[in-house]
Amino acid sequence: MQTVLSIDVDYFVRPKVTFHESGTRPDDARHQVRDLVDVERFLRDRCLLNPDRPTPGVAALDHDAAFEAIQRWMAGSGLKAPFRLVHVDAHADLGLGDAGYAEIVENVLHRRVEDRADNLRYFGLGNWLAYAIANRWIGEVIFLREPDPGIDGELMAHFFCNSPDYSVLQMRPLTERQFLNLDHSNRHEFAGLPTEEPAVRWTRVSEADFALSQPPDLVFTCLSPEYSPPKADPIFDLVQRFIR
After folding, report:
1. 160 Cβ partners below 8 Å, 6+ apart?
2. Interatomic CA distance for residues 1 and 4, integer angstroms
3. What is the pLDDT of residues 177-216, one digit of tens each?
4. What does pTM read for this prediction?
């Protein structure tokens, strides 16, 4: 299985930015960012990247651009689905039960697979990964986040309804009636619903326990300016030295 490494600069920001006013940057004074030497060590030792032999990749402002990058890579760069995604991010990017979630389970999952990437009304930077999984592009996710790799509200209950330890994500299409009548806070209500969607292994890991065994095939990186303060910009520049 091929590996796509996705690095969001907000991973290196403490404390994590959750909700922020659109169009503005978090305050430098309220956040700390990782030292550049430490970040470079992480890229070299844990991600097996080498600026002398840059890995093919894409750098973008926001994480939703990964969706289009994946489409381009599958069309012309030899990327085959399903692939492994190493998700280095402060957020799960599965959405938070918003309109995008409803669109996926009530609409996208009912389409033919080849039509699922088209005409998406509620796709965005906070749920792009859920849409990518709904397109059956991804067979495994390694979710690297700090400081706590455990379960939180960003892991949508419905997506993990048959996995007691949240280690398997499997989507289930819903009718409008099911969407309105089922208790979305109780993931076990969804467990018996039929699905033909593939199971996606979801591994949560802390940085201390993370290291790739071989270099990634492709790299995506983004700044996520609404979730990273201006003093994190040099990290974005640094990561780009490792990709071409």
Report:
1. 166, 168, 169, 170, 187, 202
2. 10
3. 988 888 877 777 888 889 999 999 999 999 999 999 999 9
4. 0.94
